[in-house]
Write a structure and sequence with these properties.
Elements: H1 2-26, E1 32-39, E2 46-52, E3 57-64, E4 70-73, E5 84-85, H2 91-95, E6 101-102, E7 116-119, E8 122-123, E9 128-129, E10 132-144, E11 151-165, E12 180-183, H3 191-199, E13 204-208, E14 217-222, E15 227-228, E16 232-233, E17 239-244, E18 263-265, E19 269-272, E20 275-276, E21 294-296, E22 303-305, H4 307-320, E23 326-327, E24 336-338, E25 344-345, E26 348-349, E27 354-357, E28 364-367, H5 369-372, E29 373-375, E30 380-383, E31 385-387, E32 400-402, H6 404-407, E33 410-415, E34 420-426
The chain binds 2-acetamido-2-deoxy-beta-D-glucopyranose (2 copies).
Residues 280, 282-283 line the site of one 2-acetamido-2-deoxy-beta-D-glucopyranose.
Length: 439
């Protein structure tokens, strides 16, 4: 018995030995990927760049954290020998969750083919939408070195599923040079899911947005380490809170009540300098129509609060800075001060900290001056939150939308299998910034 076992073992290991070196040579499998993100000065949009098509061309895209998929303006000279329209009832259509089959009356071209499934690309900046064919093409992207410190080899993903819009005006409102939207949402064809299944790495990703309009922030697709200069693994700084699914999407869809790919968290209360903001807590939960709750958004430049929350928030903040000199508000903000009222700290102006209290009193997302205040001129600083109104202008909607200014120089990691958000609070405490990835 013993000798038979020994022989089998040898046999098996020889085979493994013969096969593995050739696999190693032919296929490089990245552990994670990395994308640069720049803040567009004119629009405050966060813009990234992918390479798509054959021959490969750079494509600039606005980043929409909750966007359901990648869509590209195909009206703008889309040329590629690897372009494939998704024929009705094939796998890309089921991944895209659409069984609607389309015809196109124009000349056959990328974005205009018969017998393809169609979906609704959504311009979340402008609020516009259209119907467009589902398609596939190759995308190339930089990998992240195993130590998480810099970009590695460029890797390609053939047959990446996206939406190819034939409507030129769908890019209205997007930053100059931008040709579509990169959706990082929680769907089967969101960028994180497609790349994680293509390269078999965990379905986690992280965003680190920079306030700078001249240096790059970074998106990591895949797991940590995420290392910024000077050699700091910022993934070590994370606290965690559950991600919540909203059963109803805000994006237009064929079937109405479809669940949202956006990322919601549970804020239980807001404190300023430790004082609770008095608010109707039922607004903090998502109701049956999908209204309410707190979502995280990269397409809102500042955090948006429903009117009653906003008013209570401003008055609580103002009471906590009694000695500051108030000045006339500068739109879109409602509360502004003479900037000489506040000193400077490592984490921005020395103002009371704003605490978003999450699943329990110990889990708190703290917002300091660099993320709460906006310098609107040499002399004036404003509380960087805006009034979302009481009227429901787009149904359903969140009553707290944590926007870009409050996310900058914070690391946020979205762990989809565990359905949790890791958040770092201000990286300025760690003496680094989101512009410090070694691109
Ligand atoms: C699609 O089919 C219609 C009618 O069958 C035809 O008129 C049209 O030219 C076709 N379009 C393309 C892009 O092939
Ligand atoms: C709190 O908000 C809910 C949902 O909008 C509303 O039905 C309720 O009347 C509000 N309660 C108070 C005390 O304003």
């Amino acid at each position: 018995m013993a000798s038979t076992f020994y022989i089998l073992l040898l046999f098996c290991c020889n085979i493994v030995f013969l096969i593995s070196p050739s696999i190693a040579k032919t296929s490089f499998r990245p552990k994670a990927l990395v994308l640069p993100v720049t803040k567009d000065a004119a629009t405050n949009q966060y813009v990234t760049q992918l390479h798509q098509r054959t021959p490969s061309v750079p494509v600039k895209l606005t980043v929409d954290l909750g966007g359901h998929f990648l869509w590209v303006d195909c009206n703008d000279n889309y040329v590629s020998s690897t372009y494939k329209p998704a024929r009705c009832r094939t796998t890309p259509c089921s991944l895209a969750d659409t069984s609607v089959c389309g015809v196109c009356n124009g000349d056959q071209s990328p974005g205009c083919n018969n017998n393809t499934c169609i979906q609704n690309p959504f311009n979340s900046i402008f609020g516009s939408s259209t119907t467009a064919e589902v398609a596939q093409d190759v995308i190339s992207i930089q990998s992240l070195t195993v130590d998480g410190s810099k970009p590695g080899k460029v890797v390609s993903k053939p047959n990446f599923v996206f939406s190819c819009s034939g409507l030129a005006s769908l890019t209205a409102g997007l930053a100059s040079g931008v040709k579509g939207i990169a959706g990082l949402g929680r769907t089967k064809i969101g960028l994180p899911s497609q790349f994680s299944s293509a390269f078999s790495f965990p379905n986690k990703f992280a965003i680190c947005l920079s306030p700078s309009t001249t240096s790059n922030g970074v998106i990591f697709l895949g797991d940590s380490p995420y290392v910024l200069l000077p050699a700091i693994d910022i993934s070590k700084k994370l606290m965690y809170t559950p991600l919540i699914k909203n059963p109803i999407t805000q994006a237009p869809t064929f079937f109405g009540h479809e669940s949202s790919g956006e990322y919601f968290i549970r804020v239980r209360s807001i404190k300023i300098n430790g004082k609770a903001v008095p608010l109707n807590t039922s607004l903090l939960s998502i109701d049956r129509e999908g209204n309410g709750g707190t979502k995280i958004s990269t397409v809102n430049p500042y955090t948006v609060l429903e009117t009653t929350i906003y008013n209570a928030f401003l008055s609580t903040f103002d009471k906590q800075v009694r000695s500051a000199t108030k000045v006339a508000p500068v739109a879109p903000f409602g509360l502004c001060y003479d900037s000489k009222s506040f000193g400077n700290t490592r984490v921005g102006l020395g103002v009371p900290s704003i605490d978003l209290v999450l699943q329990n009193k110990k889990v708190v997302w703290k917002i300091f001056g660099a993320n709460s205040m906006v310098q609107v001129s040499n002399k004036v600083v404003c509380l960087g939150f805006v009034d979302g109104g009481q009227e429901v202008n787009r149904v359903p909607r969140a009553f707290i939308i944590i926007g870009g200014h409050q996310l900058e120089d914070n690391l946020l990691q979205f762990d989809l299998p565990k359905s949790r958000l890791g958040f770092s609070s201000s990286l300025l405490f760690s003496q680094t910034t989101c512009a410090n990835f070694n691109f």
